[in-house]
Amino acid sequence: MLSRNVRRALVLAAAALGLAACNTNKLVYPGSTMELPDAACGHPDNAISITAGDGTQLRGWFFNRGANTPLVVMYGGNAMNVGSFTTLAAADPARSYLLMNYRGYGNSAGTPSEKAIIDDARHSIRYARNLMGNASAPLYLVGFSLGSGVATQLATTEAPAGLILVCPFDSMTSVACNVVPFFPRLLPMDSWKSVQYAPQVTCPVTIMRANFDDVVPANSTEKLIRAFRTQPVIRNYPANHNNIFATAGFANDLQQAMPITEGCQFDF
Questions:
Q1: For 53-83, b where at least 16 C-beta lie within 10 A, e where not — what string?
Q2: How many domains in the chain?
Q3: Pairing of strands 96-100, 57-63
Q4: Rounded to two decimals, what is the model's pTM?
């Protein structure tokens, strides 16, 4: 039988974990509080609104270059408005681009969760392909940071032509434990365990790494790389986590990782 002091300690520990759990979602998904609002991202003619399966309104941008172009879907990082990628999408007329903010990010309504984000992403891909008029348009999934977890999961079910991961991690829990050892494993947080999905990915994979990543530990990315069935193509850049997209040569390398397949064409 437990002593009174031991029981009291367990109750206090449970209460502390409960309090921490109440704030877990805010820690995992702070929303796009550190980025530009949708209106400041430009390209209003490409702004779209999609109604998710449960009625939640999701907002983003769609650069539709026609039925005979590949579809590139980009997933942003935490505290990021995915509209930050509109300049990159506008500069590439050879491909169609879909950029949708997660629930609670930008002007998208709702509360984010791992399941909801994945469900919304699948729904959005179908929506974009329908607008393009090509349900089998070649698909490229591009995920940055948190978005690498989204893209990796989707790659196991959406049969993409390629998966491109920028500053990816093996799991959200692993990254969190790098800051606060062990404690995050005790919380009921969304874990985004890409390392579990990686062995199921059959398409070509490209990993784009920042040499001075100050958010995702190098060993976390290494664990993910080793989990894929075939060796990914690795690109390294003299950048930190948040400026890798601005690094010289990055945009060109990204396009090279998304080749235009036979049968695809586009009009300038």
A1: eeebebbbbbbbbebbbbbbbbbbbbbbbbb
A2: 1
A3: antiparallel
A4: 0.87
The tokens for 28 are 């995992």
Q: What is the pLDDT of residues 175-198, one digit of tens each?
A: 876 655 554 455 557 889 999 999
In tens, the pLDDT along 111-137 reads 999 999 999 999 999 999 999 999 999
Average pLDDT rounded to a whole number, residues 214-225 = 95
CATH number at residue 226: 3.40.50.1820
Residues pairing with 206 in the sheet:
164, 233
User: Which residues constitute the domain of residue 96?
Assistant: 4-256
What tokens does 72 get?
A: 């590139």
Domain membership of residue 262 (yes or no) is no
With respect to residue 223, please indicate whether it lies within any of the assigned structural domains: yes
Residue 15 is assigned to a structural domain of this protein? yes
The reply to whether 144 falls in a domain is yes
Q: What are phi and psi of 199, to 5 degrees?
A: -65, -15
Q: How far apart are CA 217 and CA 170, in angstroms?
A: 10
